[in-house]
Structures are given as C-alpha cells and as structure tokens.
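Sorry to interrupt, but I need a hand with the structure work. Could you write out one complete protein record for me, on any chain you like? Just paste the record in under my message, thanks.

. . .
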Amino acid sequence: MVIMELGHKDKAAIIEIVAASYFSSQKWNWISLKSDVGKIFKAFEELGDQYTEYPYMSRDWYVENSATKSTHMCRKWDELKELIEFLDTYAQHFDFMVKNSDQKSFCIVSESKELTDEQKNAIHNARKLRCSTFVFTASVPDDIGFELSQVGGGM
C-alpha cells in the first residue's frame, strides 16, 4: 500500500464532495457556487432577455416558470435581482447555495469552524437577504493509502 499526503486543495475537494452528497441525501436543492455560479448569472440574463422580447408576461412569471428555477432558486424577479447583486459581491466567500423547503441558505465548507473577516462580512450581508448561513465541517485525514494494480498488459 502506498501512502500519499493530502494537500489543502485535496482535503477541501473531499469535504465539498461529502457536503454535496449530504445535501442530495436530504433531498435539498443545491448548487456549487465554486463551479456553477455562472449558471445563475446566465439564467438571470436569459430571463431578462425573454422579458424584453415578450413583455406581455410579468418578469415574475418568467422567473417562476423558468427551466432554470432549480438553479437560481427564486420565485420573483426582485428576489433574483437581489440574489445576483449579492452573488456578484460575495459568491467567492461561499461554497454552496442550498434550499430546503422555502429556506435559502449559503454554505461554507471547511475543516474548521473558524471564519475569515471576509466570510463574516458575507454572512452578515446574507442575513439582509433573509438567508441563513451554515458551515459544513468534516475531518479529513492528512494522508490516504491506496494501491495501484495493473489488470491488463500492453501489446
């Protein structure tokens, strides 16, 4: 067995996988803000374009009936616009946006519960959106053992 030391990025990726798995097991709607925040911005832009092209329906109708509703998790245009403004400034301080029933939350994943000043400020501003924030902590070992076995030969 080979023992390999896990770096900080490796540990963070493992914790993100565990958090995503937990959210899914709870049947929560979630999106990774690290990898998919662009999808939320794109949905906002597309909904704005749809309203511009077909203004006979309200912007709220487009948001409520959008195919991207599970991505942005909003019901009204003003709520989505407020979310976009918030994410434009603070998305980099969170790992996930999660919705359980009607409660939208932001999540920070970490090996410890210690928060940076920037994260504390982002949490303070998330409260203004009526969103809760939680820290998902998990213990990841400093190293991992593995085996590499060849199961077929070359030509």
In short: The radius of gyration is 20 Å. The beta strands are 2-5, 29-32, 96-100, 103-110, 132-137, 143-146. Residues 33-53 form the longest helix (21 residues). Helices lie at 8-25, 33-53, 59-64, 69-72, 77-90, 117-128.
